[in-house]
Amino acid sequence: MSTLRPIALAIAGFDPTSGAGVLADVRTFEQANVYPMAVLSANTIQTEDSFSSVQWEDDRYLINQLETLLKAYPISAIKIGIIKDLEVLQHCITLIKKLSPTTVIVWDPVLRSSSGFDFTELDTSELLTTVLKLIDLITPNYLEIHQLITTKDDAIQKAQTLSQYCDVLLKGGHNPNALGFDYYIHKEHIQTIAPTTLSDYPKHGSGCVLSSAITANIAKGYTILEAIQTAKLYIESFLNSNHTLLGYHAK
Q: Of 25, 38, 30, which is closest to residue 6 (Cα–Cα)?
């Protein structure tokens, strides 16, 4: 069975505000004219500016959901957001590679909420390397890159280290020196993605939206760099959509 539009799937948590998580991913996918599907990794209690708790979905239930969709539909690209730990992440990615080896995998490593709540624990560097070798693109921001690698290197050097295993987009939303400047690193080669406009209005979930926009563009057949460049314009529109922390997904 197939749909007329390419299919993009999100594995992510439920944010009741729809600012981040699977609801934000689905909203972004729909605006990009790809057919959205989703597998829930967690349920959360939060608002756009506070985070109370997370309840993780059962591992086997998550895997069964994913397996059912992979067997039934030709999924072009998958974005992975919050996930309980690296073991569950590895199980998901291994299953994707087994059942749909051409599906492009984007991991947005949401390791901590903006209010400081920690999600995924990264206690096995060897397993992290194994996971990175199986994905196509990882999209950490400036805070997350320092959680992924704890050496004294700067953020770009750490992104170059990760690029030995997969492509890296170092998102610039938290860049203290060049706000809004993203860096795409392919095998240690750096491509700067400069903003066309800067917003005075930060948005809850903007990193999620950028990564899901990239995933949608990849599902439509764009190269990773083309997907990033097009998604950059989308996220700028999202950031400038209104004065609150909750953005509009208007074209």
A: 30
Give pLDDT tens digits for 47-100.
Answer: 999 999 999 999 999 999 999 999 999 999 999 999 999 999 999 999 999 999
Instruction: Using DSSP, state whether 46 is helix, strand or coil.
Output: strand
> Among residues 224, 227, 248, 225, which one has the least CA distance to residue 236?
248
pLDDT tens by residue, 113-169: 554 545 565 555 788 999 999 999 999 999 899 889 888 899 999 999 999 999 999
Higher-confidence residue: 30 or 177? 30
Rounded to whole angstroms, the Cα distance separating 33 from 217 reads 9
95 neighbors 59 (Cβ within 8 angstroms): no
Spatial CB neighbours of 142, under 8 Å, sequence gap ≥ 6: 155, 170, 171, 172, 173, 174, 175, 176
13 three-class SS: strand
Starting at the earlier edge strand, list the strands of the sheet with 35-46: 51-56, 35-46, 7-14, 75-80, 104-107, 137-138, 167-170, 182-186, 189-193
C-alpha 169, offset from chain centre: 10
List the Cα angle 148/134/90 in 5-degree steps: 70
Instruction: Determine the residue type at 191.
Output: Q
Calculate the alpha carbon distances from 58 to 24, 65, 234 in Å: 22, 11, 34
